[in-house]
Amino acid sequence: MKVFNTGLNTFYRKYLFTNPNENQALIAATFETEYNKTLSELIEQLLFFDKISIKIYGENLALTVLINDLGLKQTLELVDDGVIEFILWTPMLATLVEDDPNLMGKVNPIVSGNVNSAIHSQPDLSIKAGLQALRKQPDRGTRRDIERKVIKAYRIPKADFVHNAAAIVSSAYSSNKLTGVGMPKTKEIAWLDKEERFKLLGLGDDILETTILLTYIV
Question: What is the DSSP track for 6-67?
Fold first, then answer.
């Protein structure tokens, strides 16, 4: 049995990167609780599943968490045995943030693409960046050994997955097939307001994630 872990990625994107829009006092107050919760979820998955696919966006700080808390030897054994793999999340679905009068009624509000910045699309750089956050920095030989083994455990979604997801959710709305999920066609897709666009975007994300799960996890 396999499982998809998004908790580590969600945790470190929120708690290990400074975001001016976040309440920093709240972040500091909840860090330890959320960290322990995230780690407990991972340990539980290791106990009950044969394989864990971990979502990674950019820096592989999930690898850092694993090494810091499980130890280097245990982490590399899990990687070598195929128990842990990393899915480098390159697909990107987006929508208009505001109601732009120059675009409303003229364009499909759901857009798709794949990130191509080096650290977000190249496994070796993703690994190197993650290792920089280790509590105890390994020597050069150990670092190379980690990189050599972990890079084999990386998976990158096909570039067309995200475009297909955008096309599917747009077509489903336009043909009034989303009534069952609370989004009946009440207007043309180009005229959806901000709240409706984000709801449609969420459905597109579900399709994208399901596609990737069926490809790499099942």
Answer: -HHHHHHHHHSS--TTS-HHHHHHHHHHHHHHHHHHHHHHHHH-SEEEEEE-SS-HHHHHHH
Show me where the domains of the chain are located.
Answer: 2-216
pTM (2 d.p.): 0.84
Model pLDDT for residues 122-162, shown as the tens digit of each residue: 999 999 999 998 888 999 999 999 999 999 999 999 999 99
Q: Which residue, chain included where needed, has tokens 């955008």? A: 166
| Angstrom distance (rounded) from CA 157 to CA 53 | 12
Burial class of residue 110 (count of CB atoms within 10 Å of its CB; 0-12, 13-18, 19+): buried
